[in-house]
Amino acid sequence: MEKRKAVQDAEVAAKTIEKGLLIVNTGPGKGKTTAALGLALRALGRGRRVGIVQFIKGAWDTGEKHALAAFGERVAWHTMGEGFTWETQDKARDIAACREAWAKALELMADPTIGLLILDELNIALRYDYLDLDAVVGALQARRPGLHVVVTGRNAKPALIEAADLVTEMGNVKHHFSAGVKAQEGIEF
Amino acid sequence: MEKRKAVQDAEVAAKTIEKGLLIVNTGPGKGKTTAALGLALRALGRGRRVGIVQFIKGAWDTGEKHALAAFGERVAWHTMGEGFTWETQDKARDIAACREAWAKALELMADPTIGLLILDELNIALRYDYLDLDAVVGALQARRPGLHVVVTGRNAKPALIEAADLVTEMGNVKHHFSAGVKAQEGIEF
Fold it and tell me: Where does the signal peptide begin and end (chains A, B) (predicted)?
């Protein structure tokens, strides 16, 4: 263990580039959004403001909203008020809602007070081609130098993975739903 | 998408068991601890108290500590004050420190005000056989019915995975360290 740590220390010391990261949390397992929330907590603890745009209505419930309310104005939150849900029935409305959310994302990316921006379930909007992939990836790549962006959702597009600095695939090893356990307040929502 | 959601809704409705979950976040990728932090935020937002025991000294830095301080007494925090670090040099001291941390974990498991308990990097202590695996898994299985426990760390033991309700493997698809980017405040710590 000592040796491995020494090697790790040397490797870490050799890293010299400091930049805002493009982080992608994808895969079928749990933890994509919660890991983004954990980064929000970490950034808030470092005195940064955090922006959050949800691309799926209802993907987050009141648990995290209540908790983040403790940080007041230091969290800028935008939930899609209409349209795109898991039960989408009106494609034109959904596309309009996605575009509105993306416009909000661009606005927060341009806001120099924001140090971390979470684009929750953006991968879903991209998967259904509700936003232009090239335009989204291009804007993410052109982000301010110090801005960290976290994109969550299953089935991240290859072009986004290519552009990202850090990509984690959450794999589902075992899930309690298969044992008849229901979604529970404080865990799933 | 509509059909898949309908199937999901039916599946979710069929789940009737409500229980505190044993959750394991493992694998080589990022997000094991941050996803646990996200669950802490969610639980705090639901009015629950959260217990945190860190089995590796220095695994968490000040970012998350500062942020969680916003919740005051609602977060019960125990960091191993001595011993077991990534650079361990004194096995007897490390084992003693792990036992002390585990005693704290048992104390928090018995505390009825705690709704979620995070045992951060417990998998490392188990991997080095610094704690008795059977005793740990047995105690986790015998937890209070409503208590959710999250265990993090690479290389989760098969017996723990077997006992768990929800296991997620964080896979490392792409990491910025390999591109020469250094660990940064607010992201890695």
Answer: none
Among chain B residues, CA nearest to A65 = B45
Strand partners, A59: none
Decide if A150 is inside a domain.
Answer: yes
Whether the CB of B10 is below 8 Å from some CB of chain A: the reply is: no
As a dihedral over the C-alpha atoms of residue A62, residue A67, residue A71, residue A76, rounded to 10 degrees, the angle is -30
Provide the pLDDT for residue B5: 55
Answer yes or no: is A180 within a domain: no
> Which residues of chain B lie closer than 8 angstroms to A171, CB-CB?
27, 168-171
Determine contact: B128 vs chain A, CB below 8 A: yes
Banded pLDDT at B45 (limits 50, 70, 90):
very high
Tokens of A140: 């993410």
Task: Supply the mean pLDDT for chain B.
Answer: 85
Which amino acid makes up residue A40? A
Count how many domains chain B has.
1
B182 touches chain A (CB under 8 A): yes
A162 membership: H or E segment, kind and range: helix A158-163
Tokens of A54: 């949800």
Mutate to test the interface with B, among A60, A176, A188 (most CBs of B within 10 A): A176
Would B68 be classed as within a structural domain?
yes
Give B48-80 pLDDT, tens digit per residue.
999 999 998 666 666 888 899 999 999 998 887
pLDDT at B16: 53
**Model confidence over A90-145: pLDDT tens digits?**
888 888 889 999 999 999 999 999 999 999 999 999 999 999 999 999 999 999 99
Q: In what order do the strands lie in the sheet with A75-79?
A: A75-79, A49-54, A114-120, A148-152, A22-26, A166-174, B166-174, B22-26, B148-152, B114-120, B49-54, B75-79
Residue of B nearest to A43 (CA): B186
Of B29, B41, B115, the CB nearest to A37: B41
CATH number at residue A98: 3.40.50.300
**Domain of B74, in residue numbers:** 21-170
pLDDT at B1: 42
Closest residue of A to B161, CA-based? Answer: A174
**Residue A2 included in any domain:** no
Greater model confidence, B163 or B94: B163
